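sorry for the late reply, my laptop died twice this morning and i had to redo everyting from scratch. anyway the thing you sent over, i finally got around to it. pasting the sequence first so we're on the same page, its 341 residues, then the predicted structure underneath. double check i copied it right bc i was rushing
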Amino acid sequence: MRIIAKNLVQNYEGLHAVNDISLEIPEGKIFGIIGKSGAGKSTLLRMISLLERPESGEIYFDGKRVDNLKKKDLIQERRKIGMIFQTFNLLTSRNAERNVAYPMEICHTPMEEIKKRCSELLELVGLTSKAKVGISKMSGGQKQRVAIARALATNPSVLFCDEATSALDPGTTRQVLSLIKEVQKKFNLTVIMVTHQMEVVRDACDEVAVINNGKIVEQGEVEKVFSNPQSDVTRDFLSNLKTETAKDAIEKGMLDDKMVTFSKGGKYILRFPENKTGEPVLSRITKSQNVGFNIFGAGVQYVKGKELGTLQMDIIGSEDDVEKVIKELESEGIVVEEAKI
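ok and here's the structure:
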């Protein structure tokens, strides 16, 4: 499903929760919406998932306007949507199988079809042996797997994930993200992930929109946003991004990794595209320019299977020489930012 939002506005008692947001979410991709608490991302999610009507603006599913539908038609459109929540929202009075069955029961699906579908989905999420187990006896990761199976029960075209990994430990988060990516490919779903975790965007998403104060401040392919962030909000997210160890990278199917460690200091942050991470760029520059480098931290992040290098450092020299070096770095495709020290 392709989703287009145009000029969405939502106010709460004078607060501009969503302030004239427009965006296009492509079909068959994992699209991230990231922002800090109070940025407006959850309000945006409720509107584009048809849980809440916008105060003004328009929402389209595959070219059809859906924000102004009457109740009966709105219910039909909502059946094309699967939802996964941070708190799982499972029925504790039901076991895993009956939780997965619940949305199909609401749609009056024949019982034999419900049983078959439940069996298929529980196998998909690796919980066949837990079908009759009560929700209260399950771990957080198992509960979220049940929630994913339930969200897929009615064959949705789009899957919304509202902070789906926030309540999970890092290891379980990786497993759940891997499952969501597997499900997305298997059913060719459009997936929208709302999060405040840049690691989730890095490890799962194809594109991302960064929200701050009810507005989109940056949007694009994840690799480009990571390698050349345009907004202060994005840079702040990246500066606080938890770095990967080699063990993390191996668990994700990557061959190797370099730890990124930063100490306080260093006026500049350099971001290297994949084709420059293995080149002796600074060594070449020191031979051609009258400057020195004091490196405070360095390393590599993996984004969509590609290496993106980062350095935090000082450039030591005259003002004119430093300016020449920055221009030379930028001519090689390296992004140079002033760090917030």
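The chain has a mean pLDDT of 88.
thats about all i looked at so far, will dig more tmrw
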